[in-house]
Amino acid sequence: MEDVRVLVADDEKEIRNLLKKYLERELYKVDVAVNGEEALKLFAQNKYNLIILDIMMPKIDGVEVCRKLRDQTNVPILMLTAKDTEVDKILGLTIGADDYITKPFSMNEFIARIKAHMRRYLILGSEQHHEDKSTIKFKGLTINLKTYTVTKNEKEISLTAKELKLLKFFVSHPEQVFTKTQLFRNAWGDHYIEDDNTVMVHIRKLRKKIEDDPSNPKYIQTVWGIGYKFTGERDE
């Protein structure tokens, strides 16, 4: 197995050194950054299997770094914060982070959660390496990203370009919660959403085509007060 490389970004020296020490005990290679700007530079220069970001960092905060990284990679991203409010947790997870850890934390728990994310990531990476990367299969739904075709229960269905872009974005980030603005930005390529109903209308049309019961969806689920997430079960 290739060496596992981790990027740790935190402006607190003691936290950086502590995380580096414990992660290296697990035989991970660790790079550290003192702010968000340095984290982005290191990411551009190296290939990482896991990224740990403190939310409150100088120059570029962890939230913005996570947003930028999530547009480029699917590796696990864990957010560190001294705040323990529901709003902060929702914010961390809706920008594409995989987990959220509040300071102070138990190092044993931290390492256990790191290992869990790494196992999932390495297993999925191994599966994708051996599969045709252009085809993504779920129970009752197959998406071919090369031919831009979608098959439901072995019957091809017709999707518009925007519906296909939305579906492609969803299946590329399973179980992650996205706001309407994030979905609009990725499907329409615009950072400003003019009409909040635009995404909702397209989601509703997409559900009618891919769901057995659009009123009780099993693929695209609503996360009330936040947005949507894709929860399809992968076909073995």
UniProtKB/TrEMBL annotation:
Q: Which residues carry this modification: 4-aspartylphosphate?
A: 54
CDD domains found in the cross-reference section: REC_OmpR, trans_reg_C
* Molecular function GO labels: phosphorelay response regulator activity; transcription cis-regulatory region binding
GO CC, sorted alphabetically, is:
cytosol; protein-DNA complex
Pfam families, sorted: Response_reg, Trans_reg_C
Per UniProt, subcellular location reads as: Cytoplasm
Q: Does the keyword S-adenosyl-L-methionine apply?
A: no
Task: Give every Response regulatory domain span.
Answer: 5-118
Instruction: Specify the superkingdom.
Output: Bacteria
Extract one GO BP annotation from the record.
regulation of DNA-templated transcription
Q: Which PROSITE patterns match?
A: OMPR_PHOB, RESPONSE_REGULATORY
Occurrences of domain OmpR/PhoB-type (ranges): 133-232
User: What protein does this entry describe?
Assistant: Response regulator transcription factor
